[in-house]
Amino acid sequence: MAEADTIPACTAPESTKTQAGDSRPKIVHEEVYGKLRRAIIAGQLEPGRTLSVRGLAAEFGVSTMPAREAIRQLVALGALELTETRRVSVARMNKAKLEEISEARLALEPALAARVLKHLKGRSAAREKLALRLTRIDEQLDRAIERGDSAAYARYNSEFHFKLYEAAKSPVYLGLVESLWLQIGPFMRVVIGRLGTSSLVDQHKEAISALRADDAPKMAKAIRNDIGEGMSNIARADL
Which pTM does this prediction carry? Predict the structure, then answer.
């Protein structure tokens, strides 16, 4: 299989058949779409990387139909784009798009993070359980920074944010935020690889502290600062 179509092993879907051997076409499509989506958000596929329906189908061990549908959805979301020759590739970045995504992230993500506390209001045990899960992810992220591992940093950074955001149970907000990460994730990984991890500073511990304190304004501020610092680093990249 061509290297352009190879997806990291951790993104391969679970078994695509039931015990009875049924093909489950809808579930297969959702698995392929979900794994490919997470790979893009986590920066596992670099901007401009070419993908093909047959290549993805072979990689995932499925028919071309679910692979084609997953690609179609991701093209519609702006994560993938059609080239002039009708080939599909991971979307590239430009300064105008980067500025727009940055503004949108700063508007949406702090508000979504604050909604986590609204959803968990009066549920201290649930807040603490989430705080512990986020702490474990952040510890992995810290170790990635120490190792200078930009790939692991990108993966754990996206995992931290989405583990937090999913706790808000706000599907409209979450869908909008996910669409932004689908566009910025691959480019963010490339920039981190260029800059290295030594200069990276996140506000994750402040966000965890805000979660435990049930302090929505502090949570929003931590996420806003986290995004601002991250996008500032990305903006320095040579597009």
Answer: 0.83
Domain map of the chain by residue range?
Answer: 3-90, 95-235
> What are the structure tokens assigned to 98, written together?
């980067």
What local confidence, expressed as pLDDT, does residue 118 receive?
97
How far is residue 15's CA from residue 62's CA, in Å, rounded to a whole number? 10
Question: What are the beta bridge partners of residue 82?
Answer: 88
Q: Which CATH number is 3-90's, of 3.40.50.150, 1.20.1310.10, 3.90.1860.10, 1.10.10.10?
A: 1.10.10.10
| Beta bridge pairs of residue 80 | 90
Q: Quick one: tokens of 48?
A: 């401009």
Q: What is the token pair recorded at 14?
A: 């679970």
Per-residue model confidence as pLDDT tens digits over 215-237: 999 999 999 999 998 888 777 76
- 3-state secondary structure labels for all residues of the chain: CCHHHCCCHHHCCCCCCCCCCCCCHHHHHHHHHHHHHHHHHCCCCCCCCEECHHHHHHHHCCCHHHHHHHHHHHHHCCCEEECCCCCEEECCCCHHHHHHHHHHHHHHHHHHHHHHHHHCCCCHHHHHHHHHHHHHHHHHHHHHHHHCCHHHHHHHHHHHHHHHHHCCCCHHHHHHHHHHHHHHHHHHHHHHHHHCCCCCCCCHHHHHHHHHHCCHHHHHHHHHHHHHHHHHHHHCCCC
Three-class SS of 117-142:
HHHCCCCHHHHHHHHHHHHHHHHHHH
Query: Which CATH architecture describes the domain 95-235?
Result: Up-down Bundle (1.20)
Q: For the chain, which ranges sit under pLDDT 70?
A: 1-26, 195-200, 237-239
